[in-house]
Design goal:
Length: 286
């Protein structure tokens, strides 16, 4: 069977199966073979690799991954795509498709079983609304991961790389910095997709640090503090932390910790660096 990464091949499959795009799943299929080859190259997939693909769609990228990797597990939430994937991937014996929400899949035991617990590589073309929960979920769950190579909206890629003081800076930026090194591999025009999205995308590669970027006594607490301080961006850090359902510190405790950090009590969360969040978390832990 011919590769799918062209407008003609994609349209043929969609028509053949009378597939209807679901807005709720943010479905946009890649129709440019150069980009597909570029993603596999960026992810540095070799014959030794076990690859987890999130959101295979009709199997366009999956075909390229099957050619390059030892084994591929593709997790697809839309059951209407399962018969299509059975057809488009029928020539490959190194792929398994799981029809489930990736946030509910036990990826840790998948890596244990299929890859002897060695780090896996993740490749995905992620819709906007689910990018943060998936990336945070992969990092926080302790899944052994070597790298995550993903296609996201360009502004999300910008957000992953930005520092304090910018409007794009937030919980995602800090999580990515804490766990990985982020590098944009290429910008992808909206014209490379069917249907065409409204914005350009970027392929970004997150290479996991051997050790987290900062030392912190309680990782979970630090991320609760980070989330609380960005949940209400316009509020001061004190109010953000005091109003959080996840945290139970008094206003006095929070003020004292901010003081020890050497910051004014009017400071907002978006002004703190990752190191400062770690320090604040350690101070509050005490």
């Amino acid at each position: 069977m011919a590769y799918l990464g062209t407008p003609t091949a994609t349209k043929f499959i969609i028509d053949q199966y009378q597939f209807a795009f679901q807005k709720k799943f943010g479905q946009n299929f890649l129709i440019d073979s150069n980009i597909l080859e570029g993603i596999v190259e960026s992810a540095e997939i070799t014959k030794d690799d076990f690859v987890l693909e999130i959101g295979p769609g009709i199997g366009t990228m999956t075909q390229y991954l099957c050619e390059a990797a030892r084994q591929v597990v593709a997790v697809e939430i839309d059951k209407a795509l399962i018969p299509i994937l059975e057809h488009t991937l029928s020539e490959y014996d190194n792929v398994e498709v799981i029809n489930q929400d990736v946030l509910k899949v036990d990826i840790k035991s998948l890596a244990e079983e299929r890859n002897n617990g060695k780090p896996i590589k993740v490749v995905a073309n992620l819709p906007y609304y689910i990018t943060t929960p998936i990336i945070m979920g992969l990092f926080e769950s302790g899944v052994p991961i070597e790298s995550i190579t993903i296609m996201v909206q360009k502004e999300v890629a910008d957000r992953m790389q930005t520092g304090p003081g910018s409007k794009d800076y937030g919980a995602l930026s800090l999580a990515v910095q804490y766990y990985a090194t982020a590098e944009v591999q290429m910008i992808v025009s909206a014209n490379c997709f069917m249907p065409r999205p409204n914005v350009d995308s970027a392929v970004i590669k997150l290479t996991r640090h051997q050790e987290p970027a900062v030392e912190v006594q309680d990782e979970k607490l630090m991320f609760q503090i980070i989330r609380a301080s960005f949940n209400q961006r316009r509020k001061t850090l004190v109010n953000g932390l005091k109003n959080s359902a996840e945290l139970s510190f008094s206003k006095e405790e929070i003020l004292e910790a901010i003081q020890k950090l050497g910051k004014p009590e009017t400071i907002r969360g978006e002004a703190l660096t990752l190191e400062e969040f770690a320090e604040l978390s350690n101070l509050l832990k005490k």
